[in-house]
Amino acid sequence: MTHKRKASYAQTGPGTPTGQPLPVPAHFGQPAKIDVGSVEHEKVSFENWKGQADRPEPEPPVVLPPEKRLGIAIVGLGRLTLNQILPALRQSQYARPVALVSGRRDKAQVVAAQYGIDADAIYSYDEMARMAENKAIDAVYIVTPNGLHRDHAVAAAKAGKHVLCEKPMANTSEEAREMIAACNEAGVKLMIAYRCQYDVFNLEAARLTQSGELGRPRFIQAITTQVQGPGEQWRMRAALAGGGALPDIGLYCLNGVRTMLAEDPIEVYAQIINPEQDVRYQEVEESVTFTLRFPSGVIAHCITSYGAHECKDMNIRLEKGWVSLENAYAYQGQRLYVAQRRGDAEQVNEIRLSPQDQFTLEIDHFACGILHNRPFHSPGEEGLQDHLLMEAIYRSAREGLPVRIDYPSEHSPLAVTQR
Length: 419
What we know:
By secondary structure, the chain is of the alpha/beta class. About 30% of the residues lie in helices and about 25% in strands. The chain has helices spanning about 35, 80-90, 105-115, 150-160, 175-185, 200-210, 240, 245-260, 360-370, 380-400; strands at about 40, 45, 70-75, 95-100, 120-125, 140, 160-165, 190-195, 215-225, 265-275, 285-295, 300-305, 305-310, 315-320, 320-325, 335-340, 345-350, 405. The longest helix has 20 residues, at about 380-400. The two termini are about 45 Å apart. About 40% of the residues are buried.
């Protein structure tokens, strides 16, 4: 039998009075394998250089050469595109921007120069049919106001391009169905950009909820609020936005709860409250609260508003503990906490994960789905299902009564084990 020698520490060895002086002058030696790594099947990998107590570093990404990445045309050059999506594409392993569609050519030219996009690959909205001639474009990412999604998706499909569309999918469920039909008819794929479904913190919260480690989930509270500014913006115009806080930010609560439970609700009950004499809310609602009841018995209470200080948190109460995700629906800043009994005490732990850009993860999932002909986790039918549920929420608020969801789901949310 062998025994590990107990570690002892003393003021000896390198850097001490009796040991080798430090620092040491530079000299070249044969590098160790742990430092240079190995190459196999066109992938570089390294041994873990950290001790067992620390988290290992992730493996180096396998990045496709630029010419093999999915070529994406960005439709719409607003804040989301410039602040989030184009920077995310710089980090993408499987996709790259190759064209721009905008109503402002001067803006498009500036952006094209920044991202190395050919000036000949700039299109106006009424020129999207010409994209069929550009073989570098494999797909489009639609980032225009909600009310324009259907027309732009149909135009892209007719041009033979796959479609990634921002949420909400459209203004109505009927428009969503038209988008699905157009893509099916053209033989192209359609995915809705539910970035939180690809976020590592949201996925870990869903895993904890679905795994049974903390018993069965019982209640969920999800909140997305922010204080809206000037009324001239497109979000306050019903024809462009479809609605107010619900489809814009409340959708994160709706889709997020469905994702946590891998389940669709069977009943909704909602109330809408609007400020009096605020001209911004003549066409869209300011605040919505809605309750979702699920077949498993879970009750989810969701709050969304354009009139309350920013909050994007989710809390899940289970039989044997709770899960809290701060900034669940934000672009960054997520913090995940888990509470459960430890002996005679309650222990609250923070789970620290390595943050990854949600938009990059979403784009890479889309690109891999096309490059390898794989199904999406959030296809067009997922967007359609949320539209049907939002329409039920609006109906409940209008009628002041609960609304039963007695039709089959268009796309049942996937369990974490299926992702």
